[in-house]
Amino acid sequence: MIDRITAGELAHKASQDNTKYLALEVGHAMCHDVDFQLRECIEKHRNIIDEDEFCIVRVIAEDNLIKNCKRIKYYAWPYLPSPRPNQSAFLYNKQRDCITHRLWVLPDSRVMAFLSSTLEFVPKEYLTMQAWSVAFFKGVFWEYVRYDQNITMLSEHEYFLENREKLIKAGCQLPNSNSSEPFDFSKIHIENVVDTVKPVRNENGLDIISET
Fold first, then answer.
1. pLDDT tens, 35-63?
2. Which long-range contacts (CB under 8 A, 24 or more apart) does 104-112 make?
3. Any idea what the Cα angle at residue 177 is, between residues 172 and 178, rounded to 5°?
4. 61, 125, 140, 210: which one has the fewest Cβ atoms less than 10 Å from its Cβ?
5. Nearest CA to 80 among 167, 141, 166?
6. pTM score, two decimals?
7. Domain-located, residue 183
8. Which SS3 state, helix, strand or coil, does residue 39 take?
9. Is 97 contained in some domain?
10. 210 Cβ neighbours under 8 A, 6+ residues apart
11. Domain count along the chain
12. What does the pLDDT look like over 71-107, one tens digit per residue?
């Protein structure tokens, strides 16, 4: 077994660091291995997704237990994923074996709200992000992305509607907004709560990519 540093240990170390970092430097550090991670995600899904093109999605998420830890997730869908803050989406083409479009890059929710509502001038590098944010809040996100990128890929909802019969025959359960069950909070016990500042070693490690 490889003795790995756990996410808890990394977070504890980061919490004791008083160094002031530039946001731009942090951003570059979080993106240094994006190409490698995108290719790894492509290789995992290219023989699973039976479409000529599919989307690779990158999401930055907060950790539920460790407050100063961020996780970066990569996954693939045969349709345009539902947009959300801190999300990037790319279009991969099997025949060309490359990413052909950077579909969108959305910042966190506060930046999205500011960009979509401000009347002030924004720097040139934020203009495309502002357009995506405006389209998101106006409810025309799919229409704008397809127009902007000159593509015809369906959204998740549209994909399920168009392929409904095929998916049912394949044994897939289509999403139903009425079928979700509420979480049973009685399952939570005090002994399950962990001090998130104290490092905890996990035998299998955690999928931490970066921390702040």
1. 888 999 999 999 999 899 999 999 987 76
2. 104/132, 104/145, 105/129, 105/132, 106/132, 106/133, 106/136, 107/133, 109/85, 112/85, 112/136, 112/137
3. 105
4. 125
5. 141
6. 0.67
7. no
8. helix
9. yes
10. 29, 30, 70, 72
11. 1
12. 889 999 999 999 999 999 999 999 999 999 999 999 9
